[in-house]
Specification:
The complex is a heterodimer of chains A (about 120) and B (about 110). With about 120 residues, chain A is mainly beta. The termini of chain A are far apart. Chain B is about 0% helix and about 50% strand. By secondary structure, chain B is mainly beta. Chain B starts with a strand and ends with a strand. Chain B is globular. In chain B, strand 5 and strand 6 form a beta hairpin. In chain B, strands 2, 5, 6, 10, 11 and 12 form a six-stranded mixed β-sheet that branches. Classes of the chains: A mainly beta (about 120), B mainly beta (about 110).
């Protein structure tokens, strides 16, 4: 158990809908990363937040957005969902010390199925 | 742009035999390198990491990896595999500061034969 929690574990929804995935980092970690794992694209970095501020964007679609709240939990919002958005979404966290070395601890993931 | 190549999609090894999973990376600066393992339905668990110094690094579960700068490789090894090692293994590269996240390879699926 990495100490990173993600809810829900599974999510099934329809095309065109909007969903919110939630992540709580390890206690004390200021950084939250989001990744998407799909059969086509593999594991891809989406976005990084540090202490409430966006630090970097990866291959994140415009239909997707994220935020990090004052209590450091983060939410990934996916809208206008398409079949191709079906994937496993991971959150990872990093402390100030481990951030310098890019050492990240991953949560169990949320499996999103778009029908 | 940085990239990671894991040339073997699947590897089958007999229980008790040795294992080597290959990883090649492309990165413009000094890389930070990682191996993660993903069991079915599970998240990613960090096996080991290389930042600097000794090029042979030890990880959890008896795994080790060797960084070879001249070959841009970071291969994962284990002297004797156990049935519980069956999983998906991912090599990843990242840079100093951690802003941009990690770049992962496509993964190698390890199958253990009894």
């Amino acid at each position: 158990d990495s100490g990173v929690t993600q809810t829900p574990k599974h999510l099934i929804t329809a095309t065109g809908q909007r969903v919110t995935l939630r992540c709580s980092p390890r206690s004390g970690d200021l950084s939250v990363y989001w990744y998407q794992q799909s059969l086509d694209q593999g594991l891809q970095f989406l976005i990084h937040y540090y202490n409430g501020e966006e630090r970097a964007k990866g291959n994140i679609l415009e239909r997707f957005s994220a935020q990090q709240f004052p209590d450091l939990h983060s939410e990934l919002n996916l809208s206008s969902l398409e079949l191709g958005d079906s994937a496993l979404y991971f959150c990872a966290s990093s402390s100030r010390t481990s951030l310098a070395r890019n050492e990240q601890f991953f949560g169990p993931g949320t499996r999103l199925t778009v029908l | 742009a940085q990239s990671v190549t894991q040339p073997d999609i699947h590897i089958t090894v007999s229980e008790g035999a040795s294992l080597e999973l290959r990883c090649n990376y492309s990165y413009g600066a000094t890389p930070y390198l990682f191996w993660y393992v993903q069991s079915p339905g599970q998240g990613l668990q960090l096996l080991l990491k290389y930042f600097s110094g000794d090029t042979l690094v030890q990880g959890i579960k008896g795994f080790e990896a060797e960084f070879k700068r001249s070959q841009s490789s970071f291969n994962l090894r284990k002297p004797s595999v156990h049935w519980s090692d069956a999983a998906e293994y991912f090599c990843a590269v990242g840079g100093r500061g951690g802003a941009d996240g990690l770049t992962f390879g496509k993964g190698t699926h390890l199958i253990i034969q009894p």
